[in-house]
Amino acid sequence: MTRMRLNLYELYKNKMLLRSCILLFLVGTFSVFGQNANTPASTAIKANFTMASVKAYQESATLKVEDYYQYLTLLSSESTSETLKAEIKSSIYSLFESENIKVIDFTSTENATISLHELIDKITNKNFSFSVANFENSIVSTDYWTTQYQLTVMQNKIPMEFQYYQKIGFKPVVKTFGTTKKEVWTLFLGEVTLP
């Protein structure tokens, strides 16, 4: 009888030890998942691309920045037709995630931030020309990096130089190709700030 009690006691003790181990495993698992809930690996740049690939995408992003300022030059020109200006605006907005992204208002002396939409309205038909140079990319974050560059703005043959930072978003977006939907990593120009 005492042997049976000892066996029951050992069984109870082993069962409690097993429950404790399971509980510790579950707590550890949920805490790890909880830490990564905000940045799933499926949308993290570093988890999906090598640094060599990221550098190639960063080069592509600098071309998008250059395109943006070339579009602004065309939009600002009084000689550009209204039909073409409508297409240019559409092309500019397609470079960004939102037309309400904040950018620097280089037309004011305060360098205040305004929406992209407001900047486009301010420079249309004002004969600005733009050039960018000296690109430097920052370390990659979860779904973006920052590009620093020098912007030269010319109006009435008077050059103004600025140093800007621009956030470049890079994340998967679901796109439709006919009847097929596919997740495609896409570059977006983001907000522009001062250093």
In short:
By secondary structure, this protein is an alpha+beta fold. The protein has one domain (44-193): Roll (Nuclear Transport Factor 2, Chain: A).
Can you give a write-up of this model?
The chain is an alpha+beta fold and 195 residues long. It has a single domain (44-193), classed as Roll (Nuclear Transport Factor 2, Chain: A). The chain is built from five helices and six strands; from the N terminus they run ααααββαββββ. The strands form two sheets. Strands 3-4-5-6 form a four-stranded antiparallel sheet, covered by helices on one side. Strands 1-2 form a two-stranded antiparallel sheet. α3 packs antiparallel against α4 (82-95). The radius of gyration is 27 Å and the shape is globular. The termini are far apart.
Quickly list its features.
disordered N terminus, 195 residues, four-stranded antiparallel β-sheet, Nuclear Transport Factor 2, Chain: A, single chain, globular, two-stranded antiparallel ribbon
Structural class: alpha+beta
- CATH C-level category: Alpha Beta
CATH topology call:
Nuclear Transport Factor 2, Chain: A
Helix fraction bin: 40-55%
Spatial separation of the terminal alpha carbons: 81 Å
Total domains:
1
Q: Kindly report the average pLDDT value.
A: 82
Shape: globular
Low-confidence stretches: 1-9, 20-39
**What amount of the residues lies in strands?**
25-35%
Specify the number of helices.
Answer: 5
What is the β-strand count? 6
Question: What's the CATH architecture name?
Answer: Roll
The largest pleated sheet is described as: 4 strands, antiparallel
Topology order in helix (H) and strand (E) letters: HHHHEEHEEEE
Q: How big is the Rg? A: 27 Å
